[in-house]
């Protein structure tokens, strides 16, 4: 491609330098945006790694446990809850429920002896009757 000169040497030089500056500005903008994106990504990765590994306490700021420590604590709490769901030597919630059911069965061995079960629509026995 052959580009003819304008015939004015100063204008030709200005056009060449203007084109060069425009190309350099475009390349610089692309490089700047790429570097800025990489810096932001590096900051997010750094934040993620701090959250994952945890942070030790420092002056005026309490420490934070890492993800694995927190998962371990959650598993321990869940295990304590599960221990309450199964009978053991009498100390679990399940043992207390079984003991209450056993006592209730001794108080009322036959369902007919205990009377009819109240329905949810029945008022409590010590409340005044509802006005018509």
What layout of secondary structure does this protein have?
Blueprint: H1 9-53, H2 67-84, H3 93-107
Radius of gyration over all CA atoms, rounded: 40 Å
Provide mean pLDDT, rounded: 85
Q: What does the overall shape look like?
A: elongated
According to DSSP, the number of beta strands is 0
N- to C-terminal distance: 102 Å
Describe the largest sheet. none
Number of helices: 3
Strand proportion, as a percent range, falls in under 5%
Oligomer status: single chain
Spans of 5+ residues with little confidence (pLDDT < 50)? Answer: none
State the order of secondary-structure elements, H for helix, E for strand.
HHH
Helical percentage: 55-70%
Secondary-structure class: mainly alpha
How would you briefly describe this protein structure?
With 132 residues, this protein is mainly alpha-helical. It has three helices and no strands. Among the domains are: 45 residues; 45 residues, no CATH class.
Q: What does it look like?
A:
The protein is an all-alpha fold. Among the domains are: 45 residues; 45 residues, no CATH class. The protein is elongated.
How would you describe this structure in keywords?
mainly alpha, elongated, 3 helices
